[in-house]
Amino acid sequence: MTTTPPVTLRPMTETEFEAWKHRNAESFAAGMGPARGLSPEEALEVAHREVEKLLPDGRDTEQHVIWMACDGDEPVGSLWITTKPRIPFVFGLEVDRLHRGKGYGRSIMLAGEEEVRRRGHAQLDLNVFGNNTTAINLYTSLGYTVTSQQMRKKL
């Protein structure tokens, strides 16, 4: 039985949000760029545009919750979920580099699931790029199943 470190979720401060917004775009670009055949520069530009479009009011955008995940008072990661669609959707899970490999990803997802349940939802969706085996393994171990799959062949 795997034990998970305890985490609590709290809203981000404006300062935390500004730093997070850039890290989030970089992370999204790193996964999305190769999947879409974009250069790193193009992918980062697209990622920044997407974040701005999804969060026009920043951290205060309605039906989006962006949390810092903390172990005690120490931030260890973040979680971004939208409750806008009928089924809430995870846009981003981040574990700080210094805390990776310690079970925080699992803890953050479990805390997020509990918060989504508390808000009256019975399902949670997410997307994971096919080359992100660490995330795929985490989500599979948490009971997530594939609901659609996109494939590509280099010609």
Overview of this protein structure:
It is built from four helices and five strands; from the N terminus they run βααβββαβα. It is globular. It has 155 residues and is of the alpha+beta class. The protein is 40% helix and 19% strand. A five-stranded mixed sheet has the order 1-2-3-4-5, sandwiched between helices.
Task: Give a summary of the structure in a few sentences.
By secondary structure, the chain is α+β, with helices and mostly antiparallel strands. Helix content is 40%, strand content 19%.
Please supply descriptive tags for the structure shown above.
globular; 5 strands; 4 helices; 155 residues; 5-stranded mixed β-sheet
State the helix count: 4
Morphology call: globular
Termini Cα gap: 44 Å
Total count of strands? 5
* Major sheet: 5 strands, mixed
Strand/helix succession: EHHEEEHEH
